[in-house]
Amino acid sequence: MELDDRKLKILQAIIRNYMETGEPVGSRTISKYSDLNLSSATIRNEMSDLEEMGYILQPHTSAGRIPSDKGYRLYVDRMMEEKEEEVRELKELMIERTDKMEQVLKQVVKVLAANTNYATMVSAPSYHRNKLKFIQLSKVASAQILTVIMTEGNIVRNKVIDVREDLDQETVLKLNILLNSVLNGHTIEEINLSMIKSLKEQAGIHSELVADVIDAVAEVIHSEEEVEIYTSGATNIFRYPELSENGKASELISTFEEKRQLADLVNRTLADEENHGIQVYIGQETPIQAMKDCSVVTATYELGEGLQGTIGIIGPKRMDYANVVSTLKLLMDQLDEIYKGKR
Q1: Range(s) of the domain holding residue 329
Q2: Which of 136, 175, 259, 318 has its CA 20 to 30 A from that of 115?
Q3: 136 φ, ψ (degrees, to nearest 5)
Q4: CATH number (domain holding residue 165)
């Protein structure tokens, strides 16, 4: 007998209800699931077929049904397939969106340099104070668990965790449910000691694995990935004698080529949440040593869901501040519109 969509939905409903209550599930309970729209009689017939096929069991006469090992196996396999497909689609979406944004930002920084006659930079958008959206544990070997971690903005990261025990699929499933029910929607700062203690207690003998997963989540969210920075107009520095004398120009150009100090400037700008508007650094106020004879104007652009980046314009202290500030304001609005159009 073939397991059609209706039987599959009923089986999934039985398993979910049994996992929530620990009690055998009857046809009347299943009939309350709004997406099924089936009578109790129809559900009883389907449950009889599922029992005959070995997916559910009736522990006592006149009692409801509970999942069998075969039922759990089908449920776990289907769930994993769905989640893996979801993760794959999200990865493709983010790659496509990232490619489009890269093209936009490269063009933006060139136009900005041409319009201002100064050196310009823009960082690719990244996420800050990430919230956890989803955790998926999958058994990849007898002593290894693959942890897929999805954070706000649908950023997906993977980490393999070594385990000291051979976990069965039912245990992995229960750990998935436990972790997601407690951790989803929280930033790493919100995952406190009390929450971790409660998770470990609920995990019982698997508390060590839970601790490893939390460590992996913290590592992913706090991972300091290299900031992608696009630059243009570095040679505009030679237009201004006060910046091109005594080797100052070569030092500035090296800063633009290496980008390390530019990345520090971006991280500093994004970390200062109280001053995410346009900031003007003049001379000694500038956080980059090579730019102490310059003025640096930065702005934080925001694309929603915590997605942020930094735009910077570097020029002489006698730069046209009014033009630079108005240009940055216009550019931030345009980036917002461009991004919305690409979504």
Answers
A1: 96-124+227-342
A2: 259
A3: -130, 120
A4: 3.30.390.60
Q: What is the 3-state secondary structure (H, E, C) of 253-313?
A: HHHHHHCHHHHHHHHHHHHCHHHCCCEEEEHHHCCCHHHCCEEEEEEEEECCCCEEEEEEE
Closest CA to 234 of 259, 261, 256: 256
At 145 the three-state DSSP class reads strand
> Of the candidates 222, 250, 276, which is a domain's last residue?
222
pLDDT tens figures, 301-319: 877 656 778 888 999 999 8
Rounded-to-integer distance, Cα 291 and Cα 316, Å: 9
Amino acid at 133: K
What backbone phi and psi angles, to 5 degrees, belong to 278?
-80, 130
Q: Give the CATH number, domain containing residue 17.
A: 1.10.10.10
Tokens, residue 270: 């994004």
State which of 172, 198, 222 marks the end of a domain: 222
- Model confidence over 206-242: pLDDT tens digits? 888 888 888 888 776 665 455 788 999 988 888 888 8
Compute the 3-state secondary structure of the chain and give helix, strand, coil in percent, each to the nearest 5. 55, 20, 25
Closest of 86, 43, 52 to residue 71, by C-alpha: 52
Mean per-residue pLDDT pooled into runs of 10, the chain (343 residues): 83 84 86 75 90 90 84 79 64 56 81 88 73 84 84 75 83 88 80 85 87 82 67 89 82 85 79 71 86 88 73 90 85 69 49
